[in-house]
């Protein structure tokens, strides 16, 4: 909701529990002024995080041995003897599948702002740091049955308190900066994965976040049940899929017209069923929707309030071939209709409020297309594009306020300048709203991330470029630039320019 989403995904402003008048962007949530973190603190945090990941890897005692094909019990003979006495000597131990730390520092320069609301990007500019820590574990107690548990910690926030744009600039906060969630460790994912092989041919799977090492059938049925993020399995893209290692803008690591079911951190309880083969795949997922727009509590039962998606993937059955993904989705939740909210406001002589019209259980539907085209360098140089659309009559509810989306861009491998581990990315975003949502914002209505009080409507356009420098394996340093025209879909405001610096450590 990775996010980051989600992470990841993302501010609760349309619900009565959230108080739109508070100046959340200028404080820490307790009324105290936001402290600007100096660069030495940022570097110190990165050093401490890297030391912690190294210590945890050593303490785990399984990573090096397991990665080389040895048994984890080679490093724990006493535990192995104890398991043997219980008749469990053939049951593998839980494994550390990954560790990561990411710091993203972004600075928004002052921008033209003739008027604003509490949701607008701050006219005087802003600077914010976000920090995410992750510990990822997996266990295979039975053949083909895997259990995963991920623990994450988020600290810091995003510029403008993660509001003011449909295509927000930093995917790591995933709306957490404005939803007053505690900055304490939480279980991000906890789910069961079962794989039913359908072919004798297989491929090697390496240890990675939420991926246990071993052999996996090329053609298989896959089942996942528990708490996870819908983007773990849908709308994936080789060149634009992670705010921690690639593009940072929401509309580039995800299709933001896909209003996928998630809580404010980007996760939800649900079920995914997939048929995967070398040439094509078909996945279906159903997940719990939040109780209110951008809310942390999830609605139940899932048979009444849910987000459902079906995605067909076509690809060349060879390494580094083209891939095309087509996704359709439908959400059912307690949502409002923009034009109904407008009618209520006009009848009462008040500013329209989408919450005044929320009723169970309305439906929202849409589609998303996603393609990647490797060109050279074992696929590390290539192009990508996304197109998204949703009906736009029903309120944006779970991810962000984007109804129409077109993105395209590419990645260039650093091998061309003798830096084979480095990457250069460049992409462009065109985001639009539906007619009903545009009318609602023009009348002074607010969503949960966008609303200036009035609007001179224009498509929100984002240009982003990043360079990722990898001095050695497991350490990445990135510089990032984003220019946003018509921020918040408003030609009266902006342009907005954002520069960023990112440190990413992983094991």
What does this structure look like?
The protein is mainly beta. The protein has one domain (24-506): Porin (Beta Barrel). It is built from 6 helices and 18 strands. It has helices at residues 39-60, 63-67, 77-85, 250-253, 338-348, 435-442; strands spanning 95-108, 126-142, 145-156, 186-197, 202-205, 214-217, 220-228, 268-276, 280-288, 306-315, 323-335, 359-376, 381-390, 404-413, 423-432, 460-472, 475-485, 496-506. The protein has a 16-stranded antiparallel barrel with strand order 1-2-3-4-7-8-9-10-11-12-13-14-15-16-17-18. β2 (126-142) and β3 form a beta hairpin. The longest helix is centred in the N-terminal third of the chain and has 22 residues, at 39-60. The protein starts with 38 loop residues before the first helix and ends with a strand. Residues 1-75 have low confidence and may be disordered.
In short:
Helix content is 12%, strand content 39%. With 507 residues, the chain is mainly β.
Q: What is the count of DSSP helices, taking H or I runs of 4+ residues? A: 6
**Uncertain regions spanning at least 5 consecutive residues:** 1-75
Distance between the termini: 20 Å
Strands in their spatial order, largest beta sheet: 1-2-3-4-7-8-9-10-11-12-13-14-15-16-17-18
Strand residue content:
35-45%
Largest sheet report: 16 strands, antiparallel, barrel
The H-and-E topology, N to C, reads as HHHEEEEEEEHEEEEHEEEEHEEE
